[in-house]
From TrEMBL:
Pathway as given in its UniProt record: Cofactor biosynthesis; tetrahydrofolate biosynthesis; 4-aminobenzoate from chorismate: step 2/2
Cofactor names: pyridoxal 5'-phosphate
Biological processes annotated in GO: amino acid biosynthetic process; carboxylic acid metabolic process; folic acid biosynthetic process
Enzyme class: lyase
Gene3D superfamilies: 3.30.470.10, D-amino Acid Aminotransferase, subunit A, domain 2
Record carries keyword tRNA processing: no
Protein name: aminodeoxychorismate lyase
Organism for this UniProt entry: Spinacia oleracea
């Protein structure tokens, strides 16, 4: 773990703590992001850091030092962890110093980061989802990756209580939004990849990368088009294929929604082809998207 309060990296789990008077803990005033560590490379770190900085600006928190310095710390932390497969998670808090509503008495914002080891494997099995009854966040908070995740937690719990993998949010205009901590994508009956617009939801770094990679399937004649659009529930449930897209997946096929099948109720070939694009990119993509970690 890295902590700007300690001013360094600690390897002892007993030291991996955040002060209870941290404004992120008792007021939820903080932002965060996550990058994948895959086969000794940090995947899409710069895209996640760009979003992290944008979230910090919206949350009115100024980092205690430059983004390039924090980027360097994150790479060093990954090196020290010796973890070659897992997640790198990091937070920016308004800081510690009091239990007030305002952070005005907090001397300085705080940065934290931690490496969590786990192995990833490509999803081959389909999952079931439900439509969430939990109100989704307003656009300001949905487009900012902040630590206020109670709606997300309740939406996930609701899905699990109903025997589903996760839930789907629908916005107040009846358009498909996102899952509790992942984006969604569809292949419609015209073999077009359609992704919900990011105007009211978090712009997923993995889904943005998929938008860059998916035209390869258009070139191969397997997809007709790749686009972002507002998608009604009726259009979504009539799709040929559906999937979750997110950093830790990166693609999970969805075969059942509210107890009704998506398409033929089986994992779609185009879903797996899109998944292959991301997995190949993680394993052997350009250096602009993969940072090699030098382990001691």
């Amino acid at each position: 773990m890295y902590s700007s309060i300690f001013g360094g990296i600690v390897l002892d789990p007993m030291m991996m703590m955040i002060p209870i008077d941290d404004h992120m803990v008792h007021r939820g005033h903080g932002v965060f992001d996550t990058a994948i560590i895959f086969n000794g490379f940090l995947y899409e770190l710069d895209a996640h850091l760009e979003r992290f900085q944008r979230s910090a600006s919206l949350a009115k928190i100024s980092p205690p030092f430059s983004g390039s310095a924090f980027r360097s710390i994150l790479i060093q932390l990954t090196e020290k962890s010796k973890c070659k497969n897992g997640t790198l998670r990091y937070w920016l808090s308004a800081g510690s110093g009091n239990f007030s509503l305002s952070p005005s008495d907090c001397p300085t914002p705080a940065l934290y980061a931690i490496v969590i080891k786990h192995d990833m494997s490509q999803w081959k099995e389909g999952v079931k989802v439900i439509t969430s009854s939990i109100p989704m966040k307003t656009p300001l908070f949905a487009t900012m990756k902040n630590v206020n995740y109670l709606p997300n937690v309740l939406a996930q719990m609701e899905a699990e209580e109903k025997g589903a993998f996760a839930s789907i949010w629908v916005d107040d205009e009846g358009y498909i939004a996102e899952g509790p901590n992942m984006n969604v994508a569809f292949v419609n009956q015209d073999t077009e990849l359609v992704i919900p617009k990011f105007d009211k939801i978090l712009a997923g770094c993995t889904e943005n990368r998929l938008l860059e990679l998916a035209p390869k399937l258009v070139e191969q004649g397997r997809l007709k088009a790749v686009k972002t659009a507002h998608i009604s529930v009726e259009e979504a449930k009539a799709a040929a294929e559906m999937m979750f897209v997110g950093s830790s997946l990166p693609v999970a096929p969805i075969i059942m929604w509210d107890d009704k099948p998506i398409g033929n109720g089986k994992v779609g070939k185009l879903t797996l082809a899109l998944s292959d694009l991301l997995w190949n990119d993680m394993a052997a993509g350009p250096e602009t998207h993969r940072i090699r970690v030098t382990y001691e």
